[in-house]
Amino acid sequence: MTDHEMGRNGDYLLDLKNLVTRFYTDDGTVYAVNGISYNLRPGETLGVVGESGCGKTVHALSIMRLIPSPPGKIEGGEVMFQGRDLLKISNRDMRRVRGAEIAMIFQDPMTSLNPVHTIGFQIMEALKLHQGMGDKAARDRAAELLELVGIADARQNLDDYPHQFSGGMRQRAMIAMGLSCNPELLIADEPTTALDVTIQAQIIDLVKRLQERLGMAVMWITHDLGVVAGMAETVNVMYAGYIVERGPVKTIYGKPRHPYTIGLLGSLPRLDAAPGTELLSVPGLPPDLLELPTGCPFVDRCAYADDQCVEAVPQLEPTDEKDRTVACWRWEYVAERKA
Hints:
There is one protein chain. The chain has 14 helices and 12 strands. β1 and β2 form a beta hairpin. The chain starts with a helix and ends with a helix. It is globular and about 65 Å long. With 339 residues, it is α/β, with parallel strands linked by helices.
Protein backbone atom coordinates (compact mmCIF):
# COMPACT_ATOMS: atom_id res chain seq x y z
CA MET A 1 0.00 0.00 0.00
CA THR A 2 1.43 3.40 -0.95
CA ASP A 3 1.71 6.36 1.43
CA HIS A 4 -1.07 8.11 -0.48
CA GLU A 5 -3.40 5.12 -0.19
CA MET A 6 -2.67 4.82 3.54
CA GLY A 7 -3.44 8.48 4.08
CA ARG A 8 -6.64 8.22 2.08
CA ASN A 9 -7.77 5.16 4.03
CA GLY A 10 -7.20 6.93 7.34
CA ASP A 11 -4.40 4.72 8.63
CA TYR A 12 -2.33 7.78 9.49
CA LEU A 13 -3.01 9.71 12.67
CA LEU A 14 -1.56 12.91 11.16
CA ASP A 15 -1.02 13.62 7.47
CA LEU A 16 0.43 16.98 6.38
CA LYS A 17 0.24 17.97 2.73
CA ASN A 18 2.07 21.01 1.38
CA LEU A 19 1.77 23.12 4.56
CA VAL A 20 2.78 26.75 3.97
CA THR A 21 3.04 29.42 6.69
CA ARG A 22 4.17 33.02 6.22
CA PHE A 23 4.73 36.05 8.47
CA TYR A 24 4.07 39.48 6.99
CA THR A 25 6.32 41.98 8.77
CA ASP A 26 7.47 45.56 8.23
CA ASP A 27 10.74 44.16 6.87
CA GLY A 28 9.02 41.88 4.36
CA THR A 29 7.56 38.38 4.07
CA VAL A 30 9.14 35.68 6.25
CA TYR A 31 8.99 32.32 4.46
CA ALA A 32 8.76 30.26 7.65
CA VAL A 33 7.27 26.94 6.40
CA ASN A 34 7.56 26.20 2.70
CA GLY A 35 5.29 23.39 1.58
CA ILE A 36 6.13 20.49 3.88
CA SER A 37 4.44 17.10 3.68
CA TYR A 38 4.75 14.04 5.93
CA ASN A 39 2.67 11.60 7.94
CA LEU A 40 2.62 10.13 11.42
CA ARG A 41 1.20 6.77 12.45
CA PRO A 42 -0.67 6.11 15.71
CA GLY A 43 1.80 5.46 18.54
CA GLU A 44 4.82 6.53 16.47
CA THR A 45 7.61 8.78 17.79
CA LEU A 46 8.76 11.41 15.30
CA GLY A 47 11.84 13.56 15.85
CA VAL A 48 11.91 16.98 14.14
CA VAL A 49 15.46 18.38 14.08
CA GLY A 50 17.30 21.37 12.68
CA GLU A 51 18.94 24.65 13.59
CA SER A 52 17.09 27.48 15.31
CA GLY A 53 14.78 29.30 12.89
CA CYS A 54 14.33 26.35 10.52
CA GLY A 55 10.56 26.17 10.99
CA LYS A 56 10.30 23.34 13.54
CA THR A 57 8.17 25.24 16.04
CA VAL A 58 6.21 27.27 13.47
CA HIS A 59 5.09 24.09 11.70
CA ALA A 60 3.90 22.63 15.03
CA LEU A 61 2.04 25.83 15.91
CA SER A 62 0.47 25.68 12.46
CA ILE A 63 -0.83 22.17 13.20
CA MET A 64 -2.35 23.53 16.42
CA ARG A 65 -3.61 26.67 14.64
CA LEU A 66 -1.78 28.85 17.15
CA ILE A 67 -0.01 31.12 14.65
CA PRO A 68 -0.49 34.74 15.80
CA SER A 69 -2.45 36.67 13.17
CA PRO A 70 -1.29 39.23 12.31
CA PRO A 71 1.55 38.95 11.36
CA GLY A 72 1.35 35.21 10.69
CA LYS A 73 -0.89 33.33 8.29
CA ILE A 74 -1.24 29.69 7.27
CA GLU A 75 -1.32 30.19 3.51
CA GLY A 76 -2.12 26.70 2.31
CA GLY A 77 -1.98 22.96 2.62
CA GLU A 78 -3.82 20.31 4.61
CA VAL A 79 -3.40 19.06 8.17
CA MET A 80 -5.40 15.85 8.20
CA PHE A 81 -5.91 14.51 11.72
CA GLN A 82 -8.15 11.48 12.21
CA GLY A 83 -9.95 12.20 8.97
CA ARG A 84 -10.46 15.96 9.49
CA ASP A 85 -8.55 18.86 7.98
CA LEU A 86 -7.67 20.95 11.03
CA LEU A 87 -7.19 24.01 8.83
CA LYS A 88 -10.86 23.91 7.78
CA ILE A 89 -12.75 23.11 10.97
CA SER A 90 -14.32 25.90 13.05
CA ASN A 91 -12.45 27.71 15.83
CA ARG A 92 -14.81 26.10 18.32
CA ASP A 93 -14.05 22.60 17.06
CA MET A 94 -10.33 23.37 17.03
CA ARG A 95 -10.47 24.38 20.69
CA ARG A 96 -11.92 20.94 21.40
CA VAL A 97 -9.03 19.29 19.54
CA ARG A 98 -6.38 21.21 21.49
CA GLY A 99 -5.69 19.48 24.76
CA ALA A 100 -8.24 16.73 24.26
CA GLU A 101 -6.79 15.13 21.10
CA ILE A 102 -3.51 16.95 20.49
CA ALA A 103 -1.52 18.33 23.41
CA MET A 104 1.57 20.53 23.20
CA ILE A 105 4.36 21.02 25.74
CA PHE A 106 6.44 24.15 25.29
CA GLN A 107 10.12 24.90 25.85
CA ASP A 108 9.75 27.16 28.89
CA PRO A 109 7.01 26.08 31.30
CA MET A 110 7.15 29.41 33.14
CA THR A 111 5.76 31.17 30.06
CA SER A 112 3.12 28.45 29.56
CA LEU A 113 1.86 28.16 33.13
CA ASN A 114 -0.28 30.99 34.52
CA PRO A 115 1.63 32.43 37.52
CA VAL A 116 -1.53 33.59 39.33
CA HIS A 117 -3.27 30.19 39.38
CA THR A 118 -2.24 27.06 41.26
CA ILE A 119 -0.88 24.02 39.41
CA GLY A 120 -3.99 22.09 40.43
CA PHE A 121 -6.37 24.74 39.10
CA GLN A 122 -4.63 24.71 35.70
CA ILE A 123 -4.75 20.92 35.34
CA MET A 124 -8.35 20.77 36.61
CA GLU A 125 -9.43 23.45 34.14
CA ALA A 126 -8.63 21.19 31.16
CA LEU A 127 -10.37 18.23 32.80
CA LYS A 128 -13.53 20.24 33.41
CA LEU A 129 -13.52 21.70 29.90
CA HIS A 130 -12.78 18.57 27.88
CA GLN A 131 -13.91 15.74 30.16
CA GLY A 132 -16.90 17.42 31.82
CA MET A 133 -15.63 16.53 35.31
CA GLY A 134 -16.85 18.13 38.52
CA ASP A 135 -14.50 19.72 41.09
CA LYS A 136 -13.83 16.60 43.16
CA ALA A 137 -13.33 14.24 40.22
CA ALA A 138 -11.07 16.77 38.48
CA ARG A 139 -8.97 17.26 41.63
CA ASP A 140 -8.60 13.52 42.15
CA ARG A 141 -7.56 13.07 38.52
CA ALA A 142 -5.12 16.01 38.72
CA ALA A 143 -3.44 14.39 41.75
CA GLU A 144 -3.21 11.08 39.85
CA LEU A 145 -1.59 12.85 36.92
CA LEU A 146 1.03 14.56 39.10
CA GLU A 147 1.83 11.18 40.64
CA LEU A 148 2.04 9.68 37.16
CA VAL A 149 4.73 12.18 36.15
CA GLY A 150 6.74 11.57 39.30
CA ILE A 151 5.85 14.48 41.57
CA ALA A 152 5.87 13.45 45.24
CA ASP A 153 3.11 14.56 47.61
CA ALA A 154 0.98 15.21 44.55
CA ARG A 155 -2.27 16.07 46.30
CA GLN A 156 -0.53 18.63 48.51
CA ASN A 157 1.38 20.12 45.56
CA LEU A 158 -1.85 20.80 43.70
CA ASP A 159 -2.20 23.96 45.78
CA ASP A 160 1.28 25.26 44.90
CA TYR A 161 1.89 28.03 42.38
CA PRO A 162 4.31 27.64 39.45
CA HIS A 163 7.04 29.72 41.16
CA GLN A 164 7.07 27.19 44.03
CA PHE A 165 8.07 24.38 41.63
CA SER A 166 11.59 23.78 40.36
CA GLY A 167 12.21 23.88 36.60
CA GLY A 168 12.01 20.10 36.33
CA MET A 169 8.81 19.96 38.40
CA ARG A 170 7.21 22.68 36.26
CA GLN A 171 7.99 20.70 33.12
CA ARG A 172 6.53 17.57 34.73
CA ALA A 173 3.41 19.58 35.59
CA MET A 174 3.18 20.69 31.95
CA ILE A 175 3.42 17.06 30.85
CA ALA A 176 0.70 16.14 33.36
CA MET A 177 -1.47 18.90 31.92
CA GLY A 178 -0.78 17.68 28.39
CA LEU A 179 -1.72 14.11 29.31
CA SER A 180 -4.82 15.07 31.29
CA CYS A 181 -7.27 14.26 28.50
CA ASN A 182 -5.43 11.23 27.06
CA PRO A 183 -4.42 12.87 23.74
CA GLU A 184 -3.71 10.82 20.63
CA LEU A 185 -0.70 13.05 19.86
CA LEU A 186 1.72 14.83 22.19
CA ILE A 187 3.86 17.56 20.59
CA ALA A 188 6.92 18.35 22.73
CA ASP A 189 8.65 21.55 21.58
CA GLU A 190 12.20 21.47 22.95
CA PRO A 191 10.81 20.64 26.41
CA THR A 192 14.20 19.97 28.03
CA THR A 193 16.28 22.86 26.66
CA ALA A 194 16.02 25.01 29.81
CA LEU A 195 16.81 22.09 32.15
CA ASP A 196 20.11 20.68 33.34
CA VAL A 197 21.37 17.46 31.79
CA THR A 198 20.26 15.15 34.63
CA ILE A 199 16.71 16.52 34.62
CA GLN A 200 16.66 16.38 30.80
CA ALA A 201 17.35 12.64 30.94
CA GLN A 202 14.60 12.14 33.53
CA ILE A 203 12.02 14.03 31.42
CA ILE A 204 12.94 12.10 28.26
CA ASP A 205 12.69 8.80 30.12
CA LEU A 206 9.36 9.88 31.60
CA VAL A 207 7.86 10.69 28.19
CA LYS A 208 9.06 7.36 26.76
CA ARG A 209 7.50 5.42 29.65
CA LEU A 210 4.23 7.34 29.43
CA GLN A 211 4.07 6.77 25.69
CA GLU A 212 4.49 3.02 26.15
CA ARG A 213 1.82 3.03 28.84
CA LEU A 214 -0.72 5.25 27.07
CA GLY A 215 -0.03 4.37 23.42
CA MET A 216 0.03 7.97 22.18
CA ALA A 217 2.07 9.29 19.28
CA VAL A 218 4.84 11.77 20.14
CA MET A 219 6.41 14.52 18.05
CA TRP A 220 9.67 15.61 19.69
CA ILE A 221 11.00 18.91 18.33
CA THR A 222 14.64 19.60 19.16
CA HIS A 223 18.02 20.77 17.93
CA ASP A 224 19.64 17.95 19.93
CA LEU A 225 20.24 15.01 17.61
CA GLY A 226 21.41 12.86 20.52
CA VAL A 227 17.96 13.02 22.13
CA VAL A 228 16.27 11.96 18.90
CA ALA A 229 18.64 9.01 18.47
CA GLY A 230 17.53 7.63 21.81
CA MET A 231 13.77 8.00 21.53
CA ALA A 232 12.45 8.49 17.97
CA GLU A 233 11.64 5.96 15.26
CA THR A 234 11.44 8.44 12.39
CA VAL A 235 13.16 11.79 11.91
CA ASN A 236 12.39 14.88 9.82
CA VAL A 237 15.47 17.04 9.19
CA MET A 238 14.32 20.64 8.59
CA TYR A 239 16.21 23.50 7.00
CA ALA A 240 14.94 26.98 6.08
CA GLY A 241 11.29 25.93 6.30
CA TYR A 242 11.74 22.75 4.24
CA ILE A 243 12.08 19.07 5.13
CA VAL A 244 15.39 18.14 3.49
CA GLU A 245 15.59 14.53 4.67
CA ARG A 246 13.18 12.08 6.26
CA GLY A 247 13.36 8.44 7.24
CA PRO A 248 14.00 5.89 9.99
CA VAL A 249 16.38 7.22 12.64
CA LYS A 250 18.83 4.32 12.35
CA THR A 251 19.00 4.67 8.57
CA ILE A 252 19.55 8.43 8.57
CA TYR A 253 22.05 8.39 11.43
CA GLY A 254 23.93 5.49 9.86
CA LYS A 255 24.02 6.82 6.29
CA PRO A 256 22.92 10.45 5.97
CA ARG A 257 22.22 11.43 2.35
CA HIS A 258 21.64 15.20 2.48
CA PRO A 259 24.76 17.38 2.87
CA TYR A 260 23.07 19.30 5.69
CA THR A 261 22.28 16.10 7.63
CA ILE A 262 25.87 14.96 7.08
CA GLY A 263 27.09 18.24 8.57
CA LEU A 264 24.73 18.05 11.55
CA LEU A 265 25.74 14.49 12.41
CA GLY A 266 29.40 15.25 11.81
CA SER A 267 29.26 17.86 14.57
CA LEU A 268 28.25 15.20 17.13
CA PRO A 269 30.90 13.27 19.08
CA ARG A 270 30.60 9.51 18.54
CA LEU A 271 31.61 6.68 20.84
CA ASP A 272 32.66 4.54 17.87
CA ALA A 273 34.84 7.23 16.26
CA ALA A 274 38.54 6.57 15.82
CA PRO A 275 40.85 8.37 18.26
CA GLY A 276 41.73 11.85 17.05
CA THR A 277 38.65 12.15 14.79
CA GLU A 278 37.80 15.83 14.39
CA LEU A 279 34.24 17.08 14.73
CA LEU A 280 32.87 18.81 11.64
CA SER A 281 30.90 22.04 11.44
CA VAL A 282 28.46 23.26 8.82
CA PRO A 283 30.13 26.28 7.16
CA GLY A 284 28.30 29.58 6.80
CA LEU A 285 24.94 30.65 8.18
CA PRO A 286 21.32 29.66 7.44
CA PRO A 287 19.65 31.78 4.73
CA ASP A 288 17.62 34.86 5.57
CA LEU A 289 13.98 33.69 5.53
CA LEU A 290 13.05 37.12 4.13
CA GLU A 291 15.13 36.38 1.03
CA LEU A 292 15.38 32.67 0.30
CA PRO A 293 17.59 31.63 -2.64
CA THR A 294 15.77 30.65 -5.84
CA GLY A 295 17.33 27.17 -5.78
CA CYS A 296 18.15 24.78 -2.97
CA PRO A 297 18.02 26.62 0.37
CA PHE A 298 21.31 24.95 1.40
CA VAL A 299 23.17 25.90 -1.79
CA ASP A 300 25.42 28.59 -0.27
CA ARG A 301 26.73 26.21 2.42
CA CYS A 302 27.03 23.06 0.32
CA ALA A 303 30.31 21.60 -0.93
CA TYR A 304 28.51 19.49 -3.55
CA ALA A 305 26.38 22.17 -5.24
CA ASP A 306 26.29 22.62 -9.03
CA ASP A 307 24.30 24.78 -11.46
CA GLN A 308 21.06 22.82 -11.01
CA CYS A 309 21.19 23.45 -7.25
CA VAL A 310 21.26 27.19 -7.87
CA GLU A 311 18.35 27.17 -10.30
CA ALA A 312 15.60 25.02 -8.72
CA VAL A 313 14.40 23.83 -5.31
CA PRO A 314 14.71 20.03 -5.00
CA GLN A 315 11.66 18.11 -3.78
CA LEU A 316 11.67 15.14 -1.40
CA GLU A 317 12.34 12.04 -3.49
CA PRO A 318 12.70 8.35 -2.58
CA THR A 319 16.27 7.10 -2.26
CA ASP A 320 17.86 3.65 -2.40
CA GLU A 321 16.57 2.71 1.06
CA LYS A 322 13.07 1.94 2.32
CA ASP A 323 11.01 4.84 3.71
CA ARG A 324 13.91 7.27 3.11
CA THR A 325 13.35 10.52 1.19
CA VAL A 326 15.79 13.34 0.54
CA ALA A 327 15.50 16.78 -1.10
CA CYS A 328 18.84 17.01 -2.90
CA TRP A 329 19.60 17.09 -6.62
CA ARG A 330 22.91 15.31 -6.05
CA TRP A 331 22.18 12.85 -3.27
CA GLU A 332 23.49 9.88 -5.29
CA TYR A 333 26.78 11.67 -5.93
CA VAL A 334 26.96 12.64 -2.24
CA ALA A 335 26.29 9.01 -1.23
CA GLU A 336 29.14 7.78 -3.47
CA ARG A 337 31.54 10.32 -2.00
CA LYS A 338 30.58 9.42 1.58
CA ALA A 339 30.62 5.63 1.03
